[in-house]
Design a protein that fits this description.
The chain is mostly helical and 532 residues long. It is 71% helix and 5% strand.
Length: 532
């Protein structure tokens, strides 16, 4: 037994060793694969009935190469973390975020004068609204990697409000995860799974809305209950000591901040506004997609540009700090437009935040050398998170190179043959949860499992829609705990939360959600539902 809880690196390395041992025990096997076009993108899926045994490839010294291979596999997320860490450090040095948090807390105190809001709890309302926004993003466009950027903003806010870093992560990452699990229009999970199952895209919409509401009521209630406990007694937080890092960063005297508007702020404003105007000319109209069927075409970028100019001018009447906060706010606005209108992913989002950091540095009057120094300081501060993401990525590489992933899937699917309808759907759900620990990518898992599960559901007389929902829930809930997820490990690294402490906090919620998922699957087998 360990006298002390192992470091997150140690835990992940032990999982690496277990994965390597699995390649010695589990017989090798593979499915044949074919390339199909789903949702306009080519995907490699397995051919039904094509499983065959192959010689397994026991992994030995490869565990020491896992960090290198994991870095290659997760390079996008790793660079994303480093660029965002550096950009926010530049912004932090301006103390604009401190000013913003101080202004926000003053605003919430004023709201407490309202008797109804005070009775309900102003903070509860604020946390709930934040969580609903991120849950909607998760349900509509599958927000996942993007949550890493918001952790740097909302963890300090949570600490300043008297909560802890787990609360800060929960209102962003967990909330998006609840939406992801209860996906309504998520093209990366529902869209691909239904496309591979030959179902009309986003059919069964009505019951999914009901599931999303129930999942959020339960999940948000759990988070608010924990947040309230920490608010009453901060030492009850499982990360009380770890949060000293954040308390030192947020325990600043904002009254000492000098409010001013240097000429460099106007230079930054002219550069950013000019660039956005040119961008608007070339992108007068944008088509914002909500799923595949709903889309709205309107001048989103010109509108956002105009609002940015107005808010920047108003901010600079007070101080450069409020202009920098405007930069942050509209970076998020353009992130949403880019993701929903132009299919942006980690490269474009990282670039957007990097530009924000440079604009903030110029605005505050930092020299070129100062900007580089602050950026590198931010990279150093967040480097441990990037290293953990690379190490976690190596786990999947070990299992893939060992030729055992397909064998595990085949044997799990084979175990369902003699079961009834409800038992089979339950087994599918459990299988998806297990597979999600090994393959956290929703789209990759859909391509791997749905070609097997969808035809099997026809044989046992279960709706393919029910099979898709078993995949949807199985893919969603365990995303909050799987150590092979680069996003989860990246979020925890940025928030400075050790994995073992996160596990201690989140496993009761995961257990509740898995049971809730099972209960929500029962009507898909026992009732007549529209689209099922």
């Amino acid at each position: 037994m360990f006298k002390k809880v192992p470091h997150t690196y140690v835990i992940i390395f032990f999982i690496l060793i277990i994965a390597a041992l699995t390649t010695w025990i589990v017989p090798g096997g593979e499915y044949d694969r074919q390339v199909v076009t789903v949702e306009g993108a080519q995907r490699s899926i397995i051919v039904e009935g094509s499983f065959h045994q192959v010689k397994n490839q026991p992994q030995t010294w490869q565990i020491f190469a896992a960090l290198f291979k994991g870095f290659e596999k997760q390079s996008g997320i790793i660079v994303f973390i480093l660029m965002i860490g550096g950009a926010f450090w530049i912004m932090n040095k301006s103390r604009a975020i401190d000013v913003g948090i101080f202004a926000f807390l003053n605003f919430t105190k004023k709201l407490e004068h309202n008797k109804f809001l005070k009775f309900v709890g102003v903070n509860n309302i604020i946390l709930t609204l934040i969580m609903l926004v991120f849950s909607i993003f998760g349900a509509i466009f599958g927000m996942s990697e993007e949550t890493i950027a918001f952790i740097i903003i909302l963890v300090p806010l949570a600490i300043s409000m008297g909560y802890d870093s787990i609360t800060g992560v929960a209102i962003v990452f967990v909330a998006a995860g609840l939406g992801f699990a209860g996906a309504v229009l998520n093209p990366f999970t529902i869209g691909i799974a239904q496309g591979l199952s030959d179902l009309p895209l986003f059919s069964g919409f009505e019951y999914r809305i009901v599931c999303w509401l129930i999942i959020n009521i339960v999940g948000i209630s759990y988070i608010l209950r924990y947040a309230s406990k920490v608010k009453r007694n901060p030492k009850k937080s499982v990360v009380y000591e770890d949060d000293n890092y954040w308390r030192k960063r947020t325990d600043v005297d904002v009254e000492e901040v000098k409010y001013f508007v240097p000429k460099s702020a106007w230079l930054s404003f002219i550069l950013v506004a000019g660039s956005l105007i040119v961008f608007s000319i070339y992108n007068i109209e944008s088509t914002i997609k909500i799923g595949e069927k709903l889309s709205y075409t309107f001048p989103a970028i010109p509108i956002a540009t105009g609002l940015f100019i107005v808010f920047s001018l108003l901010g600079m009447r007070k101080s450069v700090h409020f202009y920098i906060l405007t930069l942050l706010m509209f970076t998020i606005v353009f992130l949403i437009i880019g993701v929903m209108g132009y299919g942006w992913y980690v490269m474009e989002i990282a670039t957007l935040f990097f530009a924000m950091g440079l604009a903030a540095g110029i605005a505050f009057g930092f020299s070129a050398n100062d900007i580089v120094k602050h950026f590198l300081d931010g990279v150093k501060d967040i480097l441990s998170a990037a290293l953990i993401v690379g190490l976690a990525g190596g786990i999947i590489i070990i299992l893939q190179d060992g030729k055992v992933i397909d064998s595990i899937l085949y044997n799990l699917a084979d175990s369902m043959k003699e079961m009834g309808k409800l038992a089979s759907v339950t087994m599918m759900y459990l299988i998806q949860n297990v597979i999600n620990i090994i393959i956290p990518s929703g789209s990759a898992k859909a391509a791997l499992t749905m070609p097997i599960m969808a035809p099997f559901s026809d044989v046992i007389g279960v709706s393919r829609q029910a099979t898709v929902m078993a995949y949807q829930f199985g893919d969603g809930f365990t995303n909050l705990i799987t150590p092979t997820s680069g996003v989860l490990i990246g979020v925890l690294g940025v928030a400075k939360i050790p994995y073992e402490k996160w596990f201690k906090w989140v496993w009761p919620l995961i257990t509740i959600m898995i049971i809730l998922g099972f209960l929500l699957l029962i009507p898909t087998v026992t009732m007549e539902l529209n689209g099922f």
